[in-house]
Amino acid sequence: MTGPILDIRQAGLKLGGRTLWSGLDLSVKPGEFVAVLGANGSGKTSLLRAILGQLPIDSGEILLQGRKVHRGDRAIGYIPQQRIMPAGTALRGRDLVSLGLDGHRWGVPWPSRRSREKVDALVESVGATAYADLPVGVLSGGEQQRLRVGQALASDPALLLCDEPLSSLDLHHQRGVAELIDKGLHERGTAVVFVTHDINPVLDMVDTVLYLAAGKFTSGPPEEVLRSDVLSDMYGTEVEVIHTGNRVFVAGVPEFPHHHGEVGA
Amino acid sequence: MMSDVLATDFWSSIFNFSDYGRLLVLVQNSIIAAAILGIVGGLIGVFVMQRDMAFAVHGISELSFAGAAGALLFGANVVAGSLVGSLLAAAIIGVLGARARDRNSIIGVLMPFGLGLGILFLALYPGRSGNKFGLLTGQILSVDIPQLGVLIGISIVVLAVLLVIWRPLVFDSVDPDVAMARGVPAGMLSIVFMILLGLMVAVSVQIIGALLVLALLVTPAAAALRISSSPVVVPLLAMLFGFVSAVGGVLLAIGGSLPISPYVTTLSFLIYIGCRIAGRIKGSRLRRRREPSARAATAGVTG
User: Fold this and answer.
1) What is the pTM of this model?
2) Buried b / exposed e across A127-158, counting CB within 10 Å, b at 16+?
């Protein structure tokens, strides 16, 4: 595979009369780790939904392996934010993974050796064997997110879309889950588009940063984008990027008057 | 002396097994209908629980009751009236109540309206009062054979469609975000599920009564979820519990002079209590097993 896995060309999206982004260009190669950053309401999640084919864009095009994106493309694996699975959920750890394998198919699941072995291998690859047979409701957030990485990798996707998969995890689990995602990228050549409000847990894995702000965007290597002058320019006001050790903090991001809650965040 | 006689009357009105064999033959169609309702009701109950729709079941059943009572008053087919009422309610809840909070407020508004409408129709109905009461508390033994056939037929259709949409419905119920990303047609599944639920509620209203539908569409699945989390074991247990409650209820009821509902509700409640206790014992065992394994997993990551 020589061409880009994901190719976004001159894409624009308006939501509720507000331009989230326009003229957006982004090309993601196999094995590339792209972090999408920006304040709440800057259109990060909307970008993911557009790539998933759930949200039609107003201009430009989004191509996945050369074809226009469509809903339910098997070439995309999706890892959502961790959310509490209620204790009464009729699902064990391994069942969560196996939904990623065949949950979209019609009919009743028939146990087969092939699917069992595949699920076992996925569970093992994310280090979840010890708790694969426990109800998901009793698992910790970190354990659930590990299983979700397995679930997302079940269809051998070319592109892994992650929507704040580390938020609400403790630091230790953030690192573990991030490393699993990075491992998938190196072993399988999967491309990763990773939406996050905090780049620090993945800073050393990121090849490219796409920063969305005030209807504008900037993309490039982290050290070229996460700079006070670049972000100040985008926001049109003084924004300070502070590097301490191997961590980055952005201070002074303005709240927008027309920004209602977390719409489109 | 007096109280002894009363006590005998009391117990013989609850349990009376004289002439049992003869009665059994008379009600065999009711038993078949109860068996199928128990099984399909238990199965759909698993999705009712996973989609958090127990309250919706209750709301649909009150409108189903209104439909049935209206049919009784206007001389139409009661099963048809009950179907119209519950499909209408299912459609309204399905369209307006996509989000849980909206849904609950809509149901809270619909339910008393349906119940009130039904009571109005019954009050205006000049016929026997036994019929009236039956819609609220169950009347399987008075449903005639062609109607039983319709109820059985509807249950089998619901079962067949449930099996076809099984996997995507599970996916959408337990993990909606990822299911959506995977292209599972959530909107279509939700509409189909509401129709199936409406059909099943209409059938249950005929058999166990509008007020007690939850005992067959929720309790068996809730009991099963207490003792298992396996997506295979839970539906099987829910079907078994529904079957035992419904058929057991009919078998216990036919000798006495009471409606079957108290037997069905008591059986399903006892099963639920048993499962809660079993689940608690299992849960504490699980926690004990889990402590060392959690430590091992943590050590594995840092090491």
Assistant:
1) 0.89
2) bbebbbebbbbbbbbbbbbbbbbbbbbbbebb
